[in-house]
Amino acid sequence: xxxxAYLPISPExxxxxxxxxxxxxxxxxxxxxxxxxxxxxLSKGWTTAVSSSESAEPFFQPYWFSSFAQTFARDASGILxxxxxxxxxxGVLPLMRQRxxxxxxxxxxxxxxxxxxxxxxxxxxxxxxxxxxxxxxxxALRADxxxxxxxxxxVPSGGGFESVMKWAAFDxxxxxxxxxxxxxxxxxxxxxxxxxxxxxxxxxGFRKTHLKSLKKLQKLGKVxxxxxxxFEPRLLExxxxxxxxxxxxxxGGAIACDQRVRSFYRAVLSAAGEAEHVRFNALKLDDxxxxxxxxxxxxxxxxxxxIAYDEAFSKYAPGQLLIRHTIQHVADEGGHRYDxxxxxxxxxxxxTDTVRPHATCYIFRPSWSGFARYVAAMKIxxxxxxxxxxxxxxxxxxxx
Length: 400
Description:
By secondary structure, this protein is of the alpha+beta class. It is built from twelve helices and 14 strands. Strands 1, 2, 3, 4, 5, 6, 7, 8, 9, 10, 11, 12, 13 and 14 form a 14-stranded mixed beta sheet that branches.
């Protein structure tokens, strides 16, 4: 995994615009502070703008950012960079102001309004408006002299924020990409008698073993699958308890380990329920859940940010059995993609070898201090990570 860093190409901005379509006048942009009132006021127009576009994922909806701002960023100064075409919202970039360090150098940073629980982040924009919105977002950010670095965490490849970076580079700013997630997903074939036929052949034996485990589990009692398509606080608490009883709690990664994380999931899943996006799936043995999944469904795509299982039944691979049942259920509902979300891992590789690359993206001011921060983030840090992976291994590597 390599880090891509770019020094500015530096042609004149006017020449760049003259060589293609000019769309400076069509869309305007400005910056608002994040506040519950602003989120409520913008919610309808924002949702309309992104519901049928490339940004049509739960993680880019206003309710997702609003829930984040109310839990993880209560003490942060958040901003919304808004793009309008007339009175219509066509783009939104939510950020928050932070004080950070790059190679020991302090920096006034505009960070994406996100963290690891956000799954991914990008410029939210209307269908067909990505380049126009990206240009105007950059115009607003370029005019704001209160920042030294812009940092966007886990931006998917080909996303709108990469277009913002392109405009920054043409203005002489320093940009760079730090690869992060290789996020697996599985496209579900429509009309196929075997929706798992396209899964990696090298793991076919493991998937057969799972079916054998199911037969063994059925000898213990009645095995059923359930899916609840609305927010149910009781089911969220049951999931938190199951996850918190296993290895994730021991390493500090369970929802129960942090009250802010618990509050975030309660808020965001409640809002997702109102938008009819949330799903609670479970594999049960005699009505006792032995594996649970918190999912999100939007535009025929299913997202699985959280899954847990009862470790007392680990030898039956209940988590894998739940994934299989959920994929089948998504197909039965007419869905066409199962997105595992998060990093690549061994248990996801059983089902797909297709990944969506993500990166943390940076924009640095073209000054001496900006260049020093750029070198620290894009030259020195990657070498340190390579040494770490050489010593301990790449956490996203899967067996061949």
